[in-house]
Amino acid sequence: MAYLVASVAGVVFFAMSVVLLGVLPTRALNADMRAMGPAKLPTLTASEQRGRIVYAREGCAYCHTQQVRYVHADMARFGAPTLAWETQFDFPQMWGTRRIGPDLAREGGTRPDDWQFAHLYAPRTVVPLSVMPSYASLFDGAANQPTNDGRDLVAYLSTLGRARELAAPEGEARAREACHCPDDEMAQMAFEMKELNAHPARARRTGPVPALPSAGDRAAGLQLYANYCAGCHGATGAGDGPAAAGLRPRPSNLSAHRYATDRIAETLWNGVAGTSMPAWRDQPLDRIAALVAAVQSLGQNASVDEASRSGDDLGARVYAANCVQCHGERGAGDGFSAASLAIAPTNFLKQQPFQSVALRALTSGIDGTSMAPWTSRLSEADITAVVHYVRSLYTGDAKEGRR
Amino acid sequence: MNDTPSDTARPAALAIDTQLIRAHGLAAIVTLLIAATFGIVASLQLIDPGLTGDVTWLSWGRLRFAHTQGIMFAWLGNAFFAFLYHAVPILTGRPVTSARLGRWLFGLWNFAVIMPGWILVLAGISQPLEWAEFPLVVDAVVVIALLLAIVQFLPPFFSRGIEHLYVSSWYIIGALIFTALAYPMGNLVPELVPGASGAAFSGLWIHDAVGLYVTPLALAVIYFVIPASTRRPIYSHFLSMLGFWLLFFLYPLNGTHHYVFSVIPMSAQLTAIAASTLLGVDVVIVVANLLLSVRGSGVFPRDAGLRFVIMSTIFYLIVSVQGSLQAQMSINQAVHFTDWVIGHSHLAMLGFASFAAAGGLAHAWQRLPIARYNERAISWAFWLMLVGVLVMVIDLTAAGIVESALWRSGAPWLDSVVAARPYWIVRSLSAIPIVAGFVALWIGLTTGPDADVRARTTVAS
């Protein structure tokens, strides 16, 4: 009899576990989702839905979690902690319990699609130290030829965190109000972040750059360059790394430019929005300084390129007539239409292309950017003159606005 | 009041099951080697990500699915079934329901669950739910097989009357019934309940798979082998039963400790953390009772079956206390998502559960009339597996601490990947003694003298 009672109690305890840890949390979460979620949620498209299935079957969730915890270390790295309503369409959930790679809950908008394609196709061409498996089977032999599965998967990746981005800031206000949690320190953490996506690799157009230690260690920088940059920019900086072919625009040819120190520092810290160049805000400043020194050394055969004539009147006139809209009167990349371009125009004060590079940009344009070929509008003489002119604008590390 | 498993050979009338013991036991080791291979290749891919080229069937995620499902269903499932065919008739004095049903169960388990399960997940048809990666169509067969197992093994207990049950019997009954109840929580419900709620249900199964299926059956083996080998009763029947009921009350309440600091309501998280803490207390009771029962046998007794289960008991204590600690918020915050947890799960499945399963097989084999048994090979298996699991667990625990420190320091993510590499190499190397141990286990159960010869030599000496 005692055992019968115990047996019944055992089943009751099991039922209790389902109620306490399953049913009741589900009810609470459903209530939260209704109250805190935006009135209209963006659903996944058919392609994104199929991509989710690819993500599921390849076990992506076993190295990448999709859940930012209410923990400051998580928030600093990935962004705002995951709210219940954000997971409303996750059938089944893919929160994961192991992070070999970073969390992906806020991956959408962190990287452009061509980076994702190049990375999925051959991860180590983009991130040389990565241990991620290659998913070349989602491609027809090249990073820019994804199969439907590959396209769907990248479409799905772009949805991660999207609903909350779209809901903000009205959505944040609504959620915070419905949360009724002024005294709940942990729940409040969901609304603590200025930006939902805190991923240190997310490129931004502008942003404050911290002061770097004055002298970077060039040897250490070259090692870092090999580990982090060579995949796209190539071993010598010629922009011909193994991942370069799939990227649009192509990675910069670092060995055919001269860069001012703060120009490199800013690019490393903020990335180049609109391109595959990520930001490196997770790197310690001494590493950034070392990389700056290394990148500058890549363009050091600049002396052979010093055939520049200065004070050429034709160049200045051609520039004023054709280039100022984007590149700005002084060449600082701040023309009146610059802000509306997806990728910021080159700042010639801080970045001096070698003659050949500038010439090619003018005659062929820069694929993937708003820089179009000018051969139909400018004569050969005009082009040569304006090449000399923009090269003469370079001020290097001297104070901006010399002219 | 209760019967302690006797060491006598089974009555002739009950011998119908020896074929099934052998079939399940050998299938267990064959599938163990396959499942371990999946794990080893996956571990090598972390060292050389290009190892298997572009063969989608061998990509990391799919191998990981096949590895854990294989260990849980194929190796442990078969090994436990083999043990049940040995233990249930002895515990109850009655045969299992039917040898024919047994053949069906063997066929279903191996050829309708494991084989198609492996093929499907490697082909890319799976569900991304931990410990539940086999797709729904296979899940349906698992449930059928679990129901058949209930029909096969439980009637002998009930026809005898539950007043006379030994603690192993309780664990067997509990394991079979509660696994059937818990299985849909992780395998079906998350397909129907989204996101955070789905995770809450997944958490239930992630823990119940270990707590209601693996742990009770492993403890059933340990509670069975210890008195049968030492020929002494368990230290305290009261403690045995206390441990049993506490385990079945507390284990299911642990689930949400896999999602601490998540959006799942804090009440559920705290319930799970409290239950996890109490569970550590329960395990201390269980292990104290077991270790008091083997007083005088030494930590490494001559009988390899007994040696396996004693070491399993020690692993059980360590892994459970570790589990209680990991559930605490301050520790969970630090080690969650790191290799520490991978070390923990290998301590549970490879240390605790696999040592119990191997001990059960070795114990049953020595008493099987038609089976060969090579004591030296089994002894080798013990030492090789012991070295391997210790190296692996210590290594992964250290890796977890390093990863956690780097993550919290704000260092670039890749720093933690680079720092883990030497630990991953050691982890892969630990597979050498482990697999050698598995092979020794196979040799131990397929070579050596058969029971008649063993009986004669025993008499002669």
Please outline what is shown here.
Chain A has helices spanning 2-36, 46-57, 72-78, 113-121, 123-126, 148-157, 162-167, 170-179, 185-188, 218-233, 261-270, 285-298, 313-322, 324-327, 355-364, 380-392; strands at 257-259, 351-353. By secondary structure, chain A is mostly helical.
Task: Offer a few descriptive terms.
heterodimer, A: 403 residues, mainly alpha, Cytochrome Bc1 Complex, Chain D, domain 2, 16 helices, B: 461 residues, Cytochrome C Oxidase, Chain A, 17 helices
Detailed description of the structure:
The complex is a heterodimer of chains A (about 400) and B (about 450). Chain A is elongated and about 105 Å long. Chain A has a two-stranded antiparallel sheet with strand order 1-2. Chain A has about 400 residues and is an all-alpha fold. Chain A is about 45% helix and about 0% strand. Chain B has about 450 residues and is mostly helical. Chain B has 17 helices and no strands. Chains A and B meet through α1, α2 and α3 of A and α1, α2, α6, α7 and α8 of B.
The percent of residues in helical segments of chain A reads: 40-55%
**Describe the biggest sheet of chain A?**
2 strands, antiparallel
Q: Per CATH, what is the topology of chain B?
A: Cytochrome C Oxidase, Chain A
Structural class of chain B: mainly alpha
Q: State the name of the first-level CATH class of chain B.
A: Mainly Alpha
The residue ranges of chain A in which pLDDT falls below 50 over 5 or more consecutive positions are none
Topology diagram in text:
The complex is a heterodimer of chains A (403) and B (461).
Chain A: H1 2-36, H2 46-57, H3 72-78, H4 113-121, H5 123-126, H6 148-157, H7 162-167, H8 170-179, H9 185-188, H10 218-233, E1 257-259, H11 261-270, H12 285-298, H13 313-322, H14 324-327, E2 351-353, H15 355-364, H16 380-392
Antiparallel strand pairs in A: 1-2
Helix pairs in contact in A: 2-6, 4-6, 10-12, 11-12, 13-16, 15-16
Chain B: H1 18-47, H2 60-92, H3 99-123, H4 136-153, H5 155-160, H6 167-187, H7 189-192, H8 195-230, H9 237-250, H10 266-293, H11 304-327, H12 329-335, H13 339-366, H14 375-409, H15 413-429, H16 431-446, H17 451-460
Helix pairs in contact in B: 1-2, 1-3, 1-15, 1-16, 2-3, 2-8, 2-13, 3-4, 4-6, 6-8, 6-9, 8-11, 8-13, 9-10, 10-11, 11-13, 11-14, 13-14, 14-15, 14-16
